[in-house]
Amino acid sequence: SSSSTAAPLPEEDCMKLNPSFLGIALSSLLAIDLWASKRLGVCAGENSAWGSARPLMKVIEVSGHGIPWLLGTFCGLCQSDSSAAREVLLNLLFALLLDLVLVAVVKGLVKRRRPTHNKMDMFVTISVDKYSFPSGHATRAALVCRFVLRHLVLAVPLRVLVVLWALIVSVSRVMLGRHNMTDVLFGLLLGYALYSVVEYCWLSPLSAPALFALW
């Protein structure tokens, strides 16, 4: 009688023995993501398939880094003598700062480690940069791309170059082994959506007179 009235398994053991369809699907997608990202990391090291292109990929990496964009925007803001240009640059600075904060918060919450084949030789990192989800470069590339296309008057070839730059920066993150594909895809979506927030909170002499008084 004692064997017939055995205590039921704990709930977590039942979940392990009977995984849900969603759990199986997520695990499969994660495995595919890791496998594909490693196969595409062709510039992850000097001995990789495309190791000779690694220096070029690192130049592209710097072009999408937050520090050059922040410094360039701030310098342009200080030197601008046009009120319209100052308004655009001030909002670009606001967008870049918002991007840095949001990506850092998400990385700190998710805490997904970078791919094992990544070499930690990135340009200027902080503590949360040891995590990979989402890709800050991809987020920034999508955000800046939408911002530039919306607020700068550019010829069609230049507009195409801006879009290509955003795509190349994003793809280079996987090629360098810095990120998995899902890190980059989510980063692009986040940056695209973040621009809408910037537009909604657009800073102008009417909405933020104190900020414009500084310039």
Automatic annotation (TrEMBL):
Source species, domain of life: Eukaryota
One of the Pfam families matching this protein, by short name: PAP2
Molecular-function GO terms, alphabetical: sphingosine-1-phosphate phosphatase activity
Cellular component aspect of the GO annotation: endoplasmic reticulum membrane; nuclear inner membrane
Annotated TM spans: 88-110, 152-172, 184-203
Hydrolase keyword on record: yes
Subcellular location: Endoplasmic reticulum membrane; Nucleus inner membrane
Domain Phosphatidic acid phosphatase type 2/haloperoxidase span(s) in chain numbering: 88-199
Record EC number: 3.6.1.68
GO BP: any one term: lipid metabolic process
InterPro entries assigned to the protein according to its UniProt record, in alphabetical order: PAP2/HPO (IPR000326), PAP2/HPO_sf (IPR036938)
Membrane topology: Multi-pass membrane protein
PANTHER family: POLYISOPRENOID DIPHOSPHATE_PHOSPHATE PHOSPHOHYDROLASE PLPP6, SPHINGOSINE-1-PHOSPHATE PHOSPHOHYDROLASE
This protein's name: Polyisoprenoid diphosphate/phosphate phosphohydrolase PLPP6
Classification lineage: Eukaryota, Metazoa, Chordata, Craniata, Vertebrata
